Amino acid sequence: MRLTDRKITIIGAGIGGLAAALAFSRQGAKVTVLEQAEAITEVGAGLQISPNGVAVLRALGLADDLAWSAPRARAVVLRSHRRGGEVLRLDLDQYAPGQNFYFAHRADLINLLADAARQAGVKVRLLQKVDRITSGARPVVHLANGAQCSGDLVIGADGLHSKARAALNGVATPRFTGQVAWRATVANLHNHPAEAQVFMGPGRHLVTYPLRDSSLMNIVAVQERKTWAEEGWHHRDDPEALRSAFTGFGGAAADLLAQVDQVALWGLFRHPVAEVWHQGSLAIMGDAAHPTLPFMAQGANLALEDAWVLVDALRTASSDEEGLAAYQQRRRSRAAKVVDAATGNAWKYHLRQPLAWPAHQILRLGGRLAPQRMVQQFDWIYGHDVTGGTPAPTGNDPGAGGPITTLA
């Protein structure tokens, strides 16, 4: 089914929405993206783009631009919290050759995708807050200002509190995981290398890695906590509260925490993977379909995978219904498996004594005896390539029926 001149409306100008917009436009579709913000700006700070996400950016012709704007990860290093002593080094250069992991600033990746989408003819409409969506053969998007819009296809890439998901599945009730996270960036004053450093402590852990030209350091700090009232990215907190929560963390972690002067705090909630991903000509993707905790660094990567598979499934199908059904069939089980892996990963870094010491010894032993196995244990995530290694065909291509780290 050719997508040329199909009218596609995408809700949300995040990573997944913009990647889908670009892929649809490359197929000749007329794409409009609705974004509620007044500008496409940074949300959050750093993120990790693993090889499965890089594969999609490569197929979209953007991998070289990513490489120019983001450091390539050389290793993941697990450390004890008190002095920052090394417990385990996962050498990506040696044991994951050919698999590129990048530390990207979210704003840089968003700008990269937005520029490419606009150049491909995508229209991005700002200040378009969606109130609700009526599903059906031709879905209707009702905006908060009273206006309405539609399209041959409407794609909900509108995140955790998706109106599109609610139209398909009803309003979900998330479950608080008993964890909160702080996020901040500081200057890289001590030339920290292109490595993800994970400082493991009792009931909490801290992750750091460099961004951009390595002049910035990204900090994500997770703490177990009994209660939390809200979720989201935009809760400003006092840096002293962060430092107090991570008292006792030494070495490089202490130095970086001392630099923090602005920090965001949010609660981590477990959302169920949506049961229904499409109905009529309405579909969902990314966090709208499968919100994930940050403990496998896969939120952005899964959204990129969704974008590619969604367009591929539609253009190789004989109808929208067939294409959207194939999209859900190809994506739901994988997304659910990755989400479950992320949910079960955090406790490994939060062990208390007397369990922490023997667990760290086991990690050290594994690093000495089977380093390659330690690195490759999640190849089922990182080595997955939804593009089949092929570049994106264009709408004018006569063969256009062909296939199109461990922490936050």
TrEMBL record:
A matching Pfam family: FAD_binding_3
Domain FAD-binding positions: 7-341
Chain spans, region Disordered: 389-408
Cofactor(s), by name: FAD
InterPro entries from the UniProt entry: FAD-bd, FAD-dep_Monooxygenase_BioMet, FAD/NAD-bd_sf
Record keywords, A-Z: FAD, Flavoprotein, Monooxygenase, Oxidoreductase
The protein, known as: FAD dependent oxidoreductase
Native source species: Phaeobacter inhibens
Taxonomic lineage of the native organism: Bacteria, Pseudomonadati, Pseudomonadota, Alphaproteobacteria, Rhodobacterales
